[in-house]
Amino acid sequence: MRYIYILVLMISVHHVNAQTNSGPFSLVASEIDGPKLYVRLANDALKICNRVLNSDEFRGEVLRAKFDWEELGSYYFIPKAIPNDQVLNLLYSKSYTMKIEFKTGRGYNWRMRRMYGTYGITNLNVPETKSLIWWLNPTGDYKGSVRDYAAHIAHEYCHMRGFADKAKDPDDFQDVVPYSIGNIVNRLLQTGKFD
């Protein structure tokens, strides 16, 4: 069954200078495909993710982050290290509309991805993400699942903007832009300030 929701979160789009709080930025889902509970979860996660992404706390953490630019994936679109203010400018360059599809995890490929801890897949510079549902528990811990999924969406959004994960050494991956941004969002959500 397919549910289509359009989030009306866009107020206006401004060019963002990373040094200032220049106005609202929005991640918007044009389509969310999956079970009804997960559609609701994604909508709620996008709302709190947008609150975090527009916060001064988020901007400050990104400007202070030490990103790892070594050995990124072979299909990366950002070929060299860029300053942190440019990371923010790329993330904030426009409000972004994406498609979210929840997968049940059936089939060999998805079983293998679950075995290795994969939460979802997003190709670089493509505004679509496929999310596995095995790691979310919206019936048992809805609020926790919303926070976890908001951090995951922030990570996947980085891929949509061209930031890659590591090509090698999976033990050394937490400081690349997508994981760093997801971790920053997760830390800020744990404060309870953005619920």
From TrEMBL:
<keyword id="KW-0732">Signal</keyword>
<protein>
    <submittedName>
        <fullName>Uncharacterized protein</fullName>
    </submittedName>
</protein>
<feature type="signal peptide">
    <location>
        <begin position="1"/>
        <end position="18"/>
    </location>
</feature>
